[in-house]
UniProtKB/TrEMBL annotation, chain A:
Source species: Digitaria exilis
Residue ranges annotated for the SKP1 component dimerisation domain, each copy included: 136-182
Keyword entries, A-Z: Ubl conjugation pathway
GO biological process: jasmonic acid mediated signaling pathway; protein ubiquitination; ubiquitin-dependent protein catabolic process
Name of the protein described by the UniProt record: SKP1-like protein
Keyword match Ubl conjugation: no
InterPro entries from the UniProt entry: SKP1, SKP1-like, SKP1-like_dim_sf, SKP1/BTB/POZ_sf, Skp1_comp_dimer, Skp1_comp_POZ
Lineage: Eukaryota, Viridiplantae, Streptophyta, Embryophyta, Tracheophyta
Keyword flag Manganese: no
Residues covered by region (Disordered): 1-21
TrEMBL record, chain B:
Domain of life: Eukaryota
Transmembrane segments: none
Signal peptide interval: none
PANTHER family referenced in this protein's UniProt entry, alphabetically: BNAA05G37150D PROTEIN-RELATED (PTHR31111), F-BOX ASSOCIATED DOMAIN-CONTAINING PROTEIN (PTHR31111:SF136)
Name the record gives this protein: F-box domain-containing protein
SMART domains: FBOX (SM00256)
Domain F-box stretches: 26-64
Cross-referenced InterPro entries: F-box-like_dom_sf (IPR036047), F-box_dom (IPR001810)
Length: 186, 405
């Protein structure tokens, strides 16, 4: 019993220490450590907010086994850049249902942020944003990916997104006729 | 049915598991990505693979996507050189879908999620452009009208409206008098209800006879605004007129309440009262041409009276702002010259797009004009010769279900 109690006290102490810090340390799947402002992490990621509130943040680096170091670096980079940008009202209630949710195009700095990424880095980042519940980063990355789809042929889309064509030849012909109008430019 | 290449899976053969087909994006991420794209772009992406196609037909997805993007205006059209189909056309003139109809059926000028096509020979059907579903209305008359002389060679007009409270649709059928001067006979009026949840009704629906108005109305001028049907007075008055001060005003309008299925009080039009006053800015035109130059239309849920002053290429659009007080306001005066040829005597139908642009259909040259009142510019829609036009307020994404699953 005493051992348990001691352990509990140690836990309490550690939590207090953690609460005093204004950054959290995140650890990528390949073991790299990143520091990010606790305030930004809690504000931008529902998952990190939950971990901070629940005290499950590890001082020596919270394990994020699903996220590689490059994607995590981008996540942290985004959090830092976001902290420096002017927060806008539209971002605050971003998790409301679709009918009432403000629908906001990426800002200039957010566009630049995703424009420099390779396809692979972008796909990894969108997955990380999804995993961490980062609504705004998810919007920004999804918007970028949607831009990549515009004006591309089905073949080009399949190649970029590594999709197998599962239509039969007859079906493709039928779809092509049905959609002939959509392949003309506006 | 045999697939030629090794890469093309056969129709019956087993497909690889979904996981290897789905590509680099997680399904929930793909959902968020595709929400950013407008409907036309999404239709093109349906050719990528089955799962993308299925996602873009998902009602939840369509609902969210529609909430984000401006509505894609769609016209339903009868092309003169394509008499066996309704063509669904977008604002760029592209044909989005073709819907087969019997030859000679013309669209009624509605702005609904269903369409109604009819002939003057008593054929009428209601179409769902999304599903291709068709409701053919019975030709036989209401029991009370059976055996009437007027029905031997029926000459019919139809009107089609949606009842807001119930979601039901109603069709008004009008059997015209056999000859123009047949004052001994009134038109016959009948109403037919199409339930929003049709098919469940136990009894076969029938046409119901309704009385005619004491004044003669012009069936072909009919327009539906919400649950009200409006008519111009019969063209017969146009022929009989001697001088405008002593005859029936030619811009009178006669309402029929499609919900209550009864006639309303005559509405004075906006022009007759002011025709020879300073309020009316043009004394040159012949009062007699007023009847032929006016068209009834529905704009933003209000009754509109369109007055196309042929020789000056000016179109006045009067809106009935207040039904009870009969308050008419001249909302637009549009100079359409020189796009429209002088052979046009009237406007056939008028609609309004979500962004406020007007859509004007001229019957003689089969031309559709999109007019922006803010910039005073008119652009003809580059399509073939149009015999009739309606607006479709349904969603482009729901339109093309096809046979593929």
């Amino acid at each position: 019993m005493e051992v348990d109690k001691g352990k509990g006290e140690a836990e309490e102490t550690r939590k207090v220490a953690e609460a005093d810090r204004d950054t959290v340390t995140l650890k990528s799947s390949d073991g790299k450590l990143f520091e990010v402002s606790k305030e930004a992490a809690a504000r931008l990621s529902t998952v990190l907010a939950g971990m901070i509130a629940g005290g499950s943040i590890d001082d020596n680096g919270t394990d994020l086994k699903q996220i590689g170091s490059e994607a995590l670096e981008n996540v942290v980079d985004y959090c830092n850049k976001h902290a420096n940008s002017i927060p806008s009202a539209a971002l605050i209630s971003s998790s409301i249902s679709f009918n009432t949710a403000p629908f906001k195009e990426p800002e200039e700095w957010e566009r630049k942020f995703v424009d420099r990424l390779s396809h692979d880095a972008l796909f990894d980042l969108v997955e990380a944003a999804n995993f961490l519940g980062m609504e705004r980063l998810l919007d920004v990355t999804c918007h970028k990916i949607s831009e990549m789809m515009k004006g591309k042929s089905p073949d080009q889309i399949r190649e970029v997104f590594n999709i197998k064509n599962d239509y039969t030849k007859e079906e493709l012909e039928e779809i092509r006729q049905e959609l002939a109008w959509a392949f003309y430019d506006d | 049915m045999e697939s030629p290449g090794p890469s093309a899976p056969s129709a019956t053969g087993s497909r690889p598991t979904a996981a290897s087909d789905a590509g680099v994006l997680l399904p929930e991420v793909l959902f968020d990505v595709l929400l950013w794209l407008p409907a036309k772009e999404l239709c093109r992406l349906r050719a990528v693979c089955r799962s993308w196609r299925a996602l873009t037909f998902d009602p939840l997805f369509i609902g969210e996507n529609t909430a984000r993007h401006p509505r894609h205006p769609l016209f339903l059209t009868n092309f003169r050189d394509g008499r066996t189909h309704i063509h669904v056309v977008d604002v760029s003139g592209s044909v989005v879908k073709r819907i087969p109809i019997p030859d000679g059926n013309l669209l009624l000028p509605t702005s609904l999620d269903l369409a109604c096509v009819a002939t003057v020979r008593n054929s009428c059907r209601v179409l769902d452009p999304a599903t291709g579903g068709v409701h053919v209305l019975p030709e036989s008359p209401a029991a009370e009208h059976a055996g009437r002389e007027i029905l031997r060679q029926p000459y019919t007009c139809f009107a089609f409206g949606r009842m807001a409270a119930t979601g039901d649709y109603k069709v008004l059928r009008m059997f015209s008098r056999p000859d123009l001067f047949g004052f001994h006979q009134h038109h016959l009026f009948e109403v037919f209800t199409i339930n929003s949840c049709s098919g469940s009704g136990s009894s076969q629906p029938q046409w119901r006879a309704r009385g005619s108005h004491e004044e003669f109305v012009e069936p072909g001028s009919v327009i539906v605004v919400g649950e009200m049907v409006y008519f111009k007075i019969d063209t017969i008055y146009d022929f009989l007129i001697v001088d405008y001060q002593h005859d029936i005003p030619l811009d009178r309008i006669i309402p029929f309440n499609l919900k209550k299925e009864e006639w309303g009080a005559i509405l004075p039009g906006p022009i007759s009262d002011i025709f020879q006053t300073d309020e009316y800015d043009d004394h040159l035109e012949d009062y007699r041409s007023l009847w032929i130059e006016t068209t009834l239309a529905e704009l933003r849920g209000s009754l509109a009276l369109v007055h196309y002053r042929t020789y000056r290429h000016i179109m006045d659009v009067w809106l009935l702002k207040d039904f009870d007080d009969v308050l008419w306001v001249k909302e637009y005066t549009i100079q359409i010259e020189p796009i429209v040829p002088t052979t046009e005597l009237c406007v056939k139908s008028l609609f309004m797009l979500g962004d406020g642009r007007l859509v004007i259909h001229f019957p003689e040259n089969g031309m559709l004009l999109i007019h922006d009142a803010r910039t005073h510019t008119s652009t003809p829609l580059e399509t073939g010769y149009l015999d009739a036009v309606a607006m479709y307020i349904g969603n482009l994404l729901s339109l093309q279900a096809g046979n593929i699953v």
